[in-house]
């Protein structure tokens, strides 16, 4: 089960970053839209595997933030489909609630911030939220959030023996950097 979750979650999130990179390299608006839709759909498909891995390891902050990222992912999909200004506001509120809940659950479970793992989780949470939220809004700064999240998650997964997920996070980092560079070169960021 462990390996299956790593392959499912890891490949989904890696494909998501590859699709983001392809979207940024697309010259035609239709192609950009198609790659963004694929990216957000694949992101959502990998979410259950990641949440399960985080829960199994009692990474409550990361689990709640990851689950709370579903509204931001859905918002990204809706924006890619319909365009800016047509996304439901309740998705924002739901994501924010999940972050607070995840932090509270972690503090309760561990009796405060007492482990290095929780610090990694906070960095994963910050990177994931910034990356997902800004990317959903088609803001180039979201890629910096993803970079922080990818590096922090690679360290967290490696420290817990999830080496497939660690490798996936490091490879994803290459595609995130490529997407950022392509967006800047195109002058759209």
UniProtKB/TrEMBL annotation:
<keyword id="KW-0812">Transmembrane</keyword>
<feature type="transmembrane region" description="Helical">
    <location>
        <begin position="93"/>
        <end position="113"/>
    </location>
</feature>
<feature type="transmembrane region" description="Helical">
    <location>
        <begin position="37"/>
        <end position="55"/>
    </location>
</feature>
<protein>
    <recommendedName>
        <fullName>Nicotinamide riboside transporter PnuC</fullName>
    </recommendedName>
</protein>
<feature type="transmembrane region" description="Helical">
    <location>
        <begin position="61"/>
        <end position="81"/>
    </location>
</feature>
<feature type="transmembrane region" description="Helical">
    <location>
        <begin position="143"/>
        <end position="165"/>
    </location>
</feature>
<keyword id="KW-0472">Membrane</keyword>
<keyword id="KW-1133">Transmembrane helix</keyword>
């Amino acid at each position: 089960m462990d390996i299956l979750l790593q392959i499912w979650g890891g490949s989904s999130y890696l494909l998501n970053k590859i699709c983001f990179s392809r979207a940024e390299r697309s010259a035609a608006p239709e192609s950009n839209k198609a790659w963004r839709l694929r990216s957000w759909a694949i992101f959502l498909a990998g979410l259950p595997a990641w949440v399960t891995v985080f829960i199994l390891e009692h990474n409550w902050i990361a689990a709640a933030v990851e689950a709370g990222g579903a509204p931001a992912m859905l918002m990204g999909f809706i924006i890619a489909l319909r365009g800016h200004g047509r996304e439901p506001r309740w998705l924002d509120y739901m994501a924010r609630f999940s972050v607070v809940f995840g932090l509270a659950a972690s503090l309760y479970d561990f009796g405060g911030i007492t482990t290095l793992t929780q610090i990694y989780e906070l960095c994963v949470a910050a990177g994931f939220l910034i990356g997902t939220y800004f990317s959903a809004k088609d803001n180039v700064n979201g890629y910096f959030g993803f970079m922080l999240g990818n590096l922090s998650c690679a360290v967290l997964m490696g420290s817990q023996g999830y080496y497939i997920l660690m490798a996936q996070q490091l490879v994803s980092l290459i595609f995130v950097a490529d997407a950022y560079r392509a967006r800047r070169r195109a002058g759209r960021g």
